[in-house]
Amino acid sequence: MSTRWYPLYQRGNPQLRVFLPNFWMKVVKPKEEVPPNVVHFHVSNEMTEYDVRNYLKKIYNLPVVAAKVEMKNGNIVKNIKGFVTKENDYKVAYVTMEKNFKFTFPDVPLKPGMELLKQSQKDNEKTKKALTEKYQYRPGLPGWFQQ
Amino acid sequence: MSIARFPFRGTKWVPPMSSVCSKRLSSAVVSVSEPQYPPIEAQGPLAEKLRRKEQWHKWLKSHDTVEEKLYELNMPKYYGWEAVSLNGKTVPYNFLPWVQFATRTHIEVNDDIKPIYSDASLDSKASELASKLKSQVEETILFEYHYLRRRHELSVTSTKTLSKLETEDIYTKSFVDHLNRVLVSGLVSEAKHLNAITVVPDPRVEAFWFLGGINPSKKKLDERKSRTKMTNLNVRKSFLDPSLVDGPVNEPIQFCGESILQLQSRYPLPSAEDIMEEDPRAKDIPHVPYEPKSLYLDKKFRHATTIPGFWPGEPHEFGLMSFLSSNFLESRPFDLEERLEGAHSVAILSSFSWLLGQACYQGFSTFHDVTYPLLTQTAVTNGRDWSFYLYQLNTTLLHTKNSTESPRCNLCWASKPASLFESVNEGRVIGLNEDVLKQIIKMYLLEPRERTGVEMKPYLSDKPYIANIDFEERRIWLEGHYKYLTSNRPRVQEKPELYAWEYIYKVKFHDMPYAKKTQWFTTQQPPPDARRLDDHPKIHKPNALRTEAEKKLDKTLSRFERTFYPGTNKNPIVGTGK
């Protein structure tokens, strides 16, 4: 990726020659079932529909028919200190290819050790739930001690 | 005010009025040789859900008039259905399979349309008339494309310039209008039925139906999952069984057409073939289960309207033919085959919607299937190139399983496009194609006939329109409300909204426990989408306007205006004395 900003073209300037643009595209798994000729991407925020179309056509020779981009709000989370913060916004591109094109998202294996981590997270939740159920009804105890 | 009309809508147990037991032993001795059992009903959450829906369908069927049936479709939604919004000019890429699925249509594309038109006498009559009217049609083409300057229509003002598409549409519309006039006046001596037709320019063709077999969206899945955990008594009604979470949904679909011209007659066109109860062609119809938004189709909140270009009660209530513009298809950046499929999909959607509207005016609906086929002819044209369609409506049932498993299917016969003329050069028409003219004339010559031995309106009463209702107050109320609903004006008081800050601080994180809990999402009240159309406060009736009979009633009844939602309050209040 280039360290420069994408230079804005002004009339009269020499032709833009960018060797390492800031553009990137990442194939993502669609949240809903989509037709086999539709592919979803996360793209860099600067990209327009024309950029998406040209990127796929010119670099990868893909039979793009239509492209649509949409800006999505970043997830809103509460940090450990209790502040509400927002994660970065991101751009999603919905790209339709020709009818006979077929794409299925591959089964990406989890990174080594992730399965163990997920299992331990599940176990933690289970224990937490069991504890809350156990100590839910404690008459006489001030509310300060309640979770 | 929520009317508990169905047993599933919150009926309460009412204690008996008197303490005397109402059960009595029969004195007659009953002897039955074979025990009579009630029918065995399917058990399970899905069967129960379907039964509840069926109860509504039966209630809709029981209404006397056409307008009430169409109004009833809107009763579950105060703010309207979030329907897939289709118009005659939205044609995304690869649209035909979805259109076939959404209308359950089998399409046959040939050079010529085979059924009905291949009749020998019709063919010879049409070719004779085509050669007779050829010079008149040539004059029409010259007048519209060469002599007429259209300085008024095409004048460019400082505020607005016409696009190429708009200019072409003006030419097409004007030419089709003129050609229709020429042909009707030229053919009326040969085809007497053209004496009694209605020609409607720019008709308002709208149709609403439910399409089943669609995958639930992410939003819908989340909502369903949350409903499985509901234990609060206030919202207990919307509890959903976990087995139904992944099931397909019914998607409401609203079509608003943009045809140029349509011709109506008193009787329907003769059917091309009888309805086949087990049609093998139905199995070839593609199933496109994807969420409409992933196919670039928009959804809009609006009331369901079904209008085939005229109001109920019009004597000329069957379609003869309609003309659609194809100019917008040429601006699509796709290849020729895709453009052709676009024309097919526009014709299928428009024909189905128009016929569905006509069927609804005969008392059928999206829940009650037609008992006889209805036909229409459609021409898609830009003035020069013409493609013809013959559409037969065999089924209107598309909800739940019907969209994929119904044994019936609708039929569409399509012809490949051909040019009526090549060009207009130096005041002469070059290359007038007589075959295309013959096909247009055949459409006019096809005679609509009365269907003998068929009950045309089996689900309607003797008084099938609101205008026939004797009870004056009810008639006026229903007429006004039906017309107002179909106008789709926005509500005076807007739909309650969940703002982003409310979602973050009140719903997601519960960071404002001290804030006043008035909105529906803080008080666990049902959401605004669950509000029914009759769920509104009563309107006060001034004392001076109350009738003598009403005054004798209890004040809780007499001081409010009566409402006459479909199927309710059918009789006036008769003075009984207090």
UniProtKB/TrEMBL annotation, chain A:
- Top-level taxonomic group: Eukaryota
> Which GO cellular component terms are attached?
mitochondrial large ribosomal subunit
Q: Which InterPro entries match?
A: Nucleotide-bd_a/b_plait_sf, Ribosomal_uL23-like, Ribosomal_uL23/eL15/eS24_sf
Q: Which UniProt keywords apply?
A: Mitochondrion, Ribonucleoprotein, Ribosomal protein
Q: Which GO terms describe its molecular function?
A: structural constituent of ribosome
Where is the protein situated, by its record's location annotation?
Mitochondrion
Q: Please verify whether the record's keywords include rRNA-binding.
A: no
What does the entry give for GO biological process?
mitochondrial translation
Oligomer status and interactors: Component of the mitochondrial ribosome large subunit (39S) which comprises a 16S rRNA and about 50 distinct proteins.
What family is this protein classified in?
Belongs to the universal ribosomal protein uL23 family.
The protein here is known as: Large ribosomal subunit protein uL23m
Please name the source species: Thrips palmi (Melon thrips)
Automatic annotation (TrEMBL), chain B:
Q: Which InterPro entries does the entry mention?
A: Ribosomal_mL37/mL65 (IPR010793), Ribosomal_mL65 (IPR039982)
Molecular function, one GO term: structural constituent of ribosome
> What are the alphabetically sorted keywords of the record?
Mitochondrion, Ribonucleoprotein, Ribosomal protein
- Report the record's Gene Ontology biological process terms: translation
Keyword match Ribonucleoprotein: yes
Keyword presence, Metal-binding: no
User: Where does the UniProt annotation locate this protein?
Assistant: Mitochondrion
One GO cellular-component annotation of the UniProt record comes to: mitochondrial large ribosomal subunit
Q: Where is the signal peptide?
A: none
- According to UniProt, the name of this protein is 39S ribosomal protein S30, mitochondrial
